[in-house]
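ZP: hey, is the NAP complex queued? I don't see it on the tracker
AM: it wasn't, my bad. submitting now with these inputs:
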Amino acid sequence: MKGLILVTGSEGLVGSRFVELSELKDSLHLPKEVELDITDKSELKAVFRSFDFRAVVHFAAFTDVAKAEEERGDKYGDCWQVNVEGTRNLVEAVKPHKARIHFIQISTDMVFSGSTWDPGAYKEDHSPEKDSNKVSWYGFTKAEAERIVQSTLGASATVLRIIYPVRAKFDKKLDYIRKPLQLYDEGKLYPMFTDQQISISFVDEVSLALDKIIIEGYRGIFHAASRDTTTPHKLLSFCLEKTRGIKNAVKPTTLKEFLQKTEASAQRYPKFGGLRVEETEQKLGMRFSTWKQIVEKLVNQGLG
Ligand SMILES: NC(=O)c1ccc[n+]([C@@H]2O[C@H](COP(=O)([O-])OP(=O)(O)OC[C@H]3O[C@@H](n4cnc5c(N)ncnc54)[C@H](OP(=O)(O)O)[C@@H]3O)[C@@H](O)[C@H]2O)c1
C-alpha cells in the first residue's frame, strides 16, 4: 500500500507503543508536538501540502482528566483547544481528501457517563453523552471531537475507543496499573473501590487492532479493551499477587463512600463503565484478552 500514515501524539503512552509494534512502521510519519501543533492550522496545512497521506491516526490529546476539570466550561482552555479544536483542524485538513485519507480518531470510554441511569459496559454503537454536566470535562471534549469527526467525515472515518490503557513499561508516564504498584512500593497505596466497574485496554492489542483497521481499511466505531470487566480492587489485588506474590494486600473501599466525602467534580467520573468488544472482535476477526490474561501478559513482558 502506498502513502504515509500521519501519527499525532506518537510519543505518548499509547501512540509510542503503536509505533514500536506496528507492521506499518516504515510508512509512519511521526512529527513531535514541537514540529506539528494540531491547534495551529497553518502548520497542519503545510504538513498536508508536503506529504501524501493515506491515513491519519490521531492519538494526540490533552489527557490529564483532573486538570481538565479545572478548565470546565472554558473553550479557550488547553483541554478544549487540543481535544476539540485540534481535532476539528485535522479533520478539516483531511476533508478534501477523505476518499483517499482514512482518518482514525482514538477516543475513550469517558465519552459515556458510566452512571446508574446509563450504565456500561457500552456497545460500539452507544451514543456519546451530549450533556457536559453528566461527564468529566475531558470526556465531554472527547465526545465533541467524536461528533466533529462523524459530522465532517461521516462513513469514511473510524473511531477507536479505549479504556485505561496499560503496558508493561513506559518511563514517561505511569498508567492505571503501574501507578498503584509504585504507590504500593512506597507504602502509599490508597484503598481501592470494590463497587466500580471498569475494563482495561492492553496497548499491544490496541496496536494490533489499529494495524488491522488500517491495512484492511475497516471504517466505523470500534472498541479495544479487555473482554470482561472488573473492579479496581480486584485488578490491583491480582496484580500484586502476580508481581509481588502478596495476597490480600489492597484495602477495600467503596466509590459510594468516597463520593459522599468528596467534591462535586468527582461525581462525574464513571462508576459503571467498561467497553464491550464483541462487535469489534467479529468485524476485525480478533479476540481480546480478559483482564486477568492482560495482567499475565504484562507480567511476562516484565511488569515490575
Ligand atoms: N491514557 C488514558 O487513560 C486514555 C484512556 C482512554 C483513551 N485515551 C486516548 O488515547 C489517546 C492517547 O492517550 P495517551 O495516554 O497516549 O496520551 P499521552 O500519553 O498524554 O500523550 C498525548 C500525546 O499528545 C501530544 N499532544 C498534546 N497536545 C498536542 C498538540 N497541541 N499538538 C500535537 N500533539 C499534542 C503529546 O505531546 P507532548 O508529549 O509533546 O505534549 C503526547 O505525545 C488520546 O487520544 C486519549 O484521549 C487515553
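AM: back. The mean pLDDT is 95.
ZP: great, adding it to the tracker
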